[in-house]
Amino acid sequence: MMSTIALGELVLAGCMTLLCIITAHQVGWPVFEPKSLAIEFVGSTIFAWYMCLFADVGLHTLGHLRIKGNTMHTIHMSHHKVEYPCGNLLRPLPYRGGGGDKAFGPPVCLIWIAVFWLAPHKRVFMAIFVESATFLFISDYLHMQYHVENSWLEGHLGDWFINRRLYHFHHHHRLRENMSLGGISTMVDRLFGTYWSEKNAEKTKDKFLCGGFQQRHVIST
Length: 221
What we know:
Layout: H1 4-27, H2 33-62, H3 71-83, H4 100-118, H5 122-146, H6 153-173, H7 187-192, H8 198-209
Helix pairs in contact: 1-2, 2-5, 5-6, 6-8
């Protein structure tokens, strides 16, 4: 497991790289274009990756906050209680979104607008936008496939997909754990203490891998 210190160093490295890019553009430092593009790409990629991981967990957490006017909570709870309740987490196609795109779309757009205004150059913004949009698409698609009975990804991604599906199904039973929606990375859950314990992981495995539910797969903790 990645230590908190190592995580902090990686985040700091990404932020410092972007700070150097901003400074270079503002003061007009003479830098060779290929080197500048390389720094921009590396910095943008690091920033986009961590931005997506924290936004993924952060927005999902907002969807669980029961406060007045929080339409994200209303729509997301429909996903938990109506479309895919604990007793019916796997259903045939089509996937029942329940308006999740309408709930989470606006805050995602606000994040992109903030990045647009803060980015030192249009190239930096476009790199972050394309990379984060790709992450968003993959995370959302994985989440949909977790709930699809006999998903085509079961045969192509094998145990990794089954393990991530179990990771998400556990969240449906314990709403304060495993907040990473697509489960691409469990880093933020581990950092904030929302990652399931070994005991809870075993309970989830027993619940979903027994009784004929994909018995050939073993969960990784």
